[in-house]
Amino acid sequence: MNPLTDSLGIPSPSPWKAEMWLRFRNLFWLKLVGTTACTWLFFIGYFHLLRHPVNAVTEMPLTALDHLIPFSPQWLGAYLSLWLYVGFAPGLQRNFAELLVYGLWVGGLCLSGLALFYLWPTAVPPLGFDVSGYAGFAMLQGVDAAGNACPSMHVAVAMFTVLRLDDVFRQARTPVAFRLANALWFLAIVYSTLAVKQHVALDALAGALLGLAFALASLHWRPAPHRMEALTA
């Protein structure tokens, strides 16, 4: 019998599709509510530190790359898409143990970023022109002001997500297009932080290094998928 058909000859889902569907539907509401709640908790701390810095705010210097990349308002959509993107990796964790450990690691990443903002408040240099006339930018300036710049938590969380999501696709043996799309989305988010001038290059670099450190550590210290599946079967 063809392994991709059942006993009645009806085509069965390919292994990677079955795996991805299992990951998606397992603990769906817990993942959705948990990710939303954690995001809001981060923003509570972020805005408190933004409005009440305990030390003098340092203005981040511009580099040649910052001068090379022009202000491009059309990249705002990619910038805001982070808040959709960050839900995919926790949403595709296979069981509660994996989800819990994932949450602890990303929580540690966010707390580290907040600690750095507390100890070293930073801001991007003023643009020198008004961007509020561009669609969406008045809202952006009201919600995500130019403080708490370095490290860019936008880039840090995107870096953490791209590596953890790539790990999911690798484990599920999805077509390479999934891993490529993941990488391209990550790159678009990183570029957008510079293109909409919410961050400078040094912010992005620091964020990438912070996210990389936590992502690599989380891939090393986590539940062994097969062992955990055996224990919960």
TrEMBL record:
<feature type="transmembrane region" description="Helical">
    <location>
        <begin position="200"/>
        <end position="219"/>
    </location>
</feature>
<keyword id="KW-0812">Transmembrane</keyword>
<keyword id="KW-0472">Membrane</keyword>
<dbReference type="Pfam" id="PF01569">
    <property type="entry name" value="PAP2"/>
</dbReference>
<feature type="transmembrane region" description="Helical">
    <location>
        <begin position="68"/>
        <end position="87"/>
    </location>
</feature>
<keyword id="KW-1133">Transmembrane helix</keyword>
<feature type="transmembrane region" description="Helical">
    <location>
        <begin position="177"/>
        <end position="194"/>
    </location>
</feature>
<feature type="transmembrane region" description="Helical">
    <location>
        <begin position="27"/>
        <end position="48"/>
    </location>
</feature>
<feature type="transmembrane region" description="Helical">
    <location>
        <begin position="145"/>
        <end position="165"/>
    </location>
</feature>
<feature type="domain" description="Phosphatidic acid phosphatase type 2/haloperoxidase">
    <location>
        <begin position="147"/>
        <end position="224"/>
    </location>
</feature>
<dbReference type="InterPro" id="IPR000326">
    <property type="entry name" value="PAP2/HPO"/>
</dbReference>
<feature type="transmembrane region" description="Helical">
    <location>
        <begin position="99"/>
        <end position="120"/>
    </location>
</feature>
<protein>
    <submittedName>
        <fullName>Phosphatase PAP2 family protein</fullName>
    </submittedName>
</protein>
